[in-house]
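Subject: sequence -> C-alpha cells, single chain

Hey, anyone have a minute? Need the predicted structure for the following. Not urgent.
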Amino acid sequence: MDFNQNPSGIGGQGLSAADMASNSLTDLINTAGPGNKERKSAALLVDHFGVPSRKAKELMAQVIDEDQLTPQEKADGIVTEGDRLLQQKWLQKAESMYGINQKAVSTERRARKDSFERYKDIEDNRRDVASIHANLPSLTVNNLDENNVFSKNAIKGLREERFTNPSAFNQKVLVGLNEMGFNAPKAIFSEAQTIYDPKDPNADDMGLVAIPSRLLGYQIVNEKLPASRRTPVTLSIDDFNNMDDVYRKIYAAQGLESFSRDKRLVDPRIKRNTFNDPVTEMGAIGQNVTQLP
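Reply:
Had a minute. Here:
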C-alpha cells in the first residue's frame, strides 16, 4: 500500500501512513506545552535534521501568508516556514522508513507463502505416493489382465511383441510405468557400432555391418518420494523374461524393499515378517510371541 493511500475496511477508510506520521509529529510538538511549541519545533529541526540553530529560529519566525498555505497545511496547523520545513522532512523520513518496513513485510509474506507451498507440495506428494503404493499390487504381482505387459498372465502374442514389434511393446511398457507413478522414465540405449563380418547378409562391399542403437530399458524412480528414499533403478527389456525381476525393480524404484508372498507391500522402514514394527535401529527379524496362558 502506498504511503499516502488510505486503507479501506468494513468501517470505511482509515488513516494513511502519511496521516499517522503527521499526527505523531503534532503530538510530539504538543508535549512541549502551549508556550514552547515553536522552541520544540526548532529543536527538532536541529536535533533530527541537522538544521543550524540560528537558521531554525529564523524559519520559525517567518510567518507564511495564509493564501500561500495549502488546505492540508492549514488543517495541519502550519503557520511558519519552520513548521513547513519540519513537516516536509518529518514525512520524508517517515516515508523512507515506511518503504523499508513494507519491503520487510513483503519479504516475510513471500517467505510464508513459499513455506506453505513447499508444505503443500510435500503433503500432496505424500498422498500421491500412498495412493500409488496402495494400487501397486494390482498393477504388478496381482495383475491378471491378459492384455497387460506387466501381467504374468499376458497372452503369448503380447509377450512375443518384444521381438516381433519392439516399438509397440516398449510403448505399452511406458504406459504401464506411468500408471505406477513413474512419470519420466529415462530411456537407455545401446551404442551404435560398426563391425566387420563379410558373411553377414547386411554387410556392405567392404564387409562392414552397421548395428544401430536399440532401446535397452528405462531408468525409473518415483520423483515424489522423499529424497532419502529415491533409488533410481534400471529396468531392462530383457527383465521381462522373468516377471519377478520386473516386480522387484519396480518396488525398489518405489522405495519399497520387495513384494511379499502374501502380496503385501514391504516398506524398508518396517522389520521383515512383522509388518508393524518400524525399524529405528539395527535389530533382529521380528519373532513370534507365544501367547501367555
